[in-house]
Design brief:
Blueprint lengths: L2 H8 L6 H23 L6 H17 L2 H13 L10 E4 L1 H5 L2 H6 L1 H7 L3 E4 L29 H13 L3 E6 L3 E3 L3 H7 L3 H4 L4 E2 L3 H7 L14 E4 L4 E4 L6 E3 L5 H15 L5 E4 L17 H17 L4 E4 L5 H4 L15 E3 L1 H13 L3 H9 L8 E4 L13 H6 L4 H12 L11 E6 L4 E5 L2 H4 L2 H6 L3 H20 L3 E5 L32 H5 L7 H18 L9 E4 L6 E8 L2 E8 L5 E4 L1 H5 L9 E2 L4 E2 L6 E4 L4 E5 L2
Parallel strand pairs: 1-2, 1-15, 2-3, 3-9, 9-10, 10-11, 11-12, 12-15
Antiparallel strand pairs: 4-8, 5-7, 6-7, 13-14, 16-17, 17-18, 18-23, 19-22, 20-21
This protein binds alpha-D-glucopyranose.
Length: about 650
């Protein structure tokens, strides 16, 4: 039982504030104490623990009444984030419709498509020039002027609550910008704030770190430290040189960041995206990712939130190896007490592998290799986001298939990044590291799936094929269990946007190719059913509706992979008591057949031909074989 469940058992509406706080603190104090002292074991940190104990009631009392009531309701209603009713979209406010006010005007558009969960990319103030798309934060609690004001944000969260839309915002917890007030003071020589970051007199310690630290942006920001002439010192900057890594070995940093976190949730944020959380703890001699201390720290944040704002939950942005991602749900006593949600980056990357290879063996092998997740946790399933696609597959699994991991990754980069004439994909190579041969892929879903090439070459067959691929991949994320997250623009098959190449601030980072402006003109023409954009939009709208109407799609760890004997097919079943839904997808450009006896055994033909919810038609058998067309997806209902 996780702490949230414990709160559910204990929660009674008639408690007054003080009683409620005392009860929540009592229920979590042992865990809080344990995590705190595991990170800060020295005796002199007892006074910092005392500070934490003083801080929590203040934060609790400052939480707006309406959210405190919402906390209680959410605790009582169970794990809302696992519902089949949730469907999400991720967007850049300024690329979508100008600013926060403009976004609010588009609530009808979200409703039309069926979106009720939004991830807004950072809206906090950032440095003028490069800012890593806002992931360099100047202030955690203000809204950058270009988006509007804090009042606009409060208005927006109010409107979202009224319309049943959940909001996710980033908490860039690993680093601040070099213009953040702490960084400014550190630059001026303030020792207190120099201790908020990893700052060194000379390169001796950085050199030790560098022996094992990988590089995140080897092309644009090589190395992990930056020399700051004003201080005549080095600061750790694992991401870009203007993003200073926070030093959580200093408990004062934790206390201040906890305050920022809670205040963020107090603005009406339902899910906090813990950005780059794998990097939170650093240690010489390691790659400084996924360290046990990072998990303790995240759980400490979570447990404090459980006391003061239990209705807000955390998403782990850990784009790391599959077996490492799962750990952000918490292990042992931290199980279910770390992050409730994590990006299913493994599924995402594996789907792209299956598109390029037209085969699903690595997908099966990898999914089977991932330990099952705790039952109170869920995924965000997605195919594209604002970032690149990393090829984080397990080497030994690639080898088991008889492939050479290095050559296989090279093939994928060639396939997606325009280095093979026959490939339909129009992607770009991102952060190729000649030292290691590693590279990542950028590009919009539609361009990576052939729509750009099809339109350019006026190739109708390729166009139809790419539309089918786009719908199939989204269909998998809608059916897989968790919150499906559509990247804004993908619902209308938006192509790559090359305008970043003319912008001096953006041209060094080709992730901007997949950060397009929302195309409202195309959207205003969606009634024209000849457009591929309309086909995609209509298909997704329909699939979303079907998902919301079938409780079998709620995530209860109720997914079983089905082995079909055909390497081009991906199939899984979702079950709920007697109810069942069988997903079958063909990743090949040719029609494929599978033996139907196992489908019969599962009971899908026990009442005549089963209904396919996607086409709305019954599915018949061709002798004992079931035929699946190229890039077709079936959602068969168990009668
Ligand atoms: C996350 C964001 C990415 C950003 C990085 C550093 O990975 O998704 O866009 O560059 O964090 O904040």
């Amino acid at each position: 039982m996780n702490q949230a469940k414990l709160h559910r058992l204990l929660s009674q509406k008639d408690k007054n504030d003080q009683e409620l706080f005392d009860q929540r603190l009592a229920a979590n104090l042992t865990l809080i104490q344990k995590q705190f002292f595991s990170l800060y074991p020295e005796e002199h940190h007892e006074k910092d623990f005392q500070k934490l104990l003083n801080l929590l009631p203040t934060l609790f009392l400052e939480r707006p009444e309406i959210l405190r009531n919402q906390d209680l309701n959410r605790l009582q209603s169970g794990n809302w984030y696992q519902s089949e009713k949730l469907v999400g979209m991720q967007l850049y406010v300024e690329h979508f419709n100008k600013d926060l006010e403009g976004l609010q005007e588009k609530i009808p558009y979200f409703k039309k498509l069926g979106i009720n969960f939004l991830h807004l990319m950072p809206i906090t103030p950032r440095p003028k020039g490069e800012s890593d798309g806002g992931y360099a934060v100047n202030n955690y609690l203000e809204v950058d002027k270009k988006y509007g004001s804090k009042e606009d944000l409060l208005e927006l969260t109010k409107a979202f609550r009224k319309n049943g839309i959940y909001l996710m915002l980033d908490f860039v917890v690993n680093h601040t910008s070099n213009e953040f007030s702490w960084a400014k003071k550190a630059k001026k020589g303030d020792k207190k704030y120099q201790r908020y970051y990893y700052i060194y007199e000379d390169f001796t310690i950085p050199a030790e770190f560098e022996k094992t630290l990988p590089e995140v942006f080897p092309e644009s920001s090589p190395g992990n430290f930056t020399y700051i002439p004003e201080m005549e010192k080095w600061v750790m900057t694992v991401f870009n040189s203007y993003q200073w890594d926070l030093n959580y070995t200093n408990p004062q940093v934790f206390l201040e960041m906890l305050t920022n976190l809670v205040k963020l949730t107090d603005m009406g944020v339902d899910v906090v995206r813990f950005d780059a959380l794998a990097f939170l703890w650093k240690k010489i001699g390691t790659i400084s990712q996924n360290l046990p201390e990072a998990h303790n720290l995240i759980s400490l944040f979570r447990m404090c939130l459980q006391v003061v704002a239990p209705g807000s939950i955390l998403l782990a942005e850990a784009i790391v190896a599959p077996t490492d991602i799962i750990k952000y749900f918490g292990e042992e006593e931290r199980q279910g007490n770390e992050c409730e949600i994590a990006y299913n980056a493994s599924l995402m990357a594996l789907l792209w592998n299956s598109i390029a290879t037209k085969k699903t063996q690595l997908l099966y092998k990898s999914l089977m290799h991932i330990p099952s997740k705790p039952k109170d946790c869920t995924w965000i399933n997605y195919i594209r986001c604002h970032d690149d696609i990393g090829l984080g597959y397990e080497n030994h699994l690639i080898q088991e298939l008889g492939w050479n991991p290095e050559m296989h990754r090279k093939f994928l980069l060639d396939y997606f990044c325009q280095r093979l004439d026959w490939s339909p994909a129009t992607g770009m190579l991102f952060m190729y590291n000649p030292k290691t041969g590693d590279g990542r892929i950028t590009g919009s879903a539609a361009s990576l799936l052939g729509l750009e090439k099809a339109i350019k070459n006026k190739d109708e067959d390729l166009l139809q094929e790419s539309v089918r691929k786009i719908i199939m991949l989204h269909g998998i994320t809608l059916a897989f269990g968790g919150i499906p997250l559509i990247y804004a623009g993908d619902e209308i098959g938006t192509l790559n946007d090359y305008s970043f190449q003319n912008d001096p601030v953006k041209k060094g980072d080709n992730r901007w190719v997949n950060r397009p402006i929302q195309d409202w003109e195309t959207i205003s023409n969606l009634d024209n059913k000849d457009l591929p954009q309309s086909n995609i939009f209509d298909a997704l709208q329909k699939l979303i509706k079907i998902r919301k109407e079938n409780t079998v799609f709620a995530d209860r760890n109720n997914l079983q992979l089905c082995h079909t004997g055909n390497d081009h097919i991906f199939s899984f079943e979702r079950t709920q008591g007697q109810k069942g839904l069988l997903v079958i997808c063909n990743f090949d450009e040719n029609a494929q057949v599978i033996d139907s006896s196992w489908i019969k055994k599962l009971g899908y033909f026990s009442n005549g031909e089963p209904l396919d919810l996607v086409s709305g038609e019954k599915v018949g058998l061709n002798s004992a074989l079931l035929e699946i067309m190229p890039y077709q997806m079936l959602w068969l209902v168990k009668p």
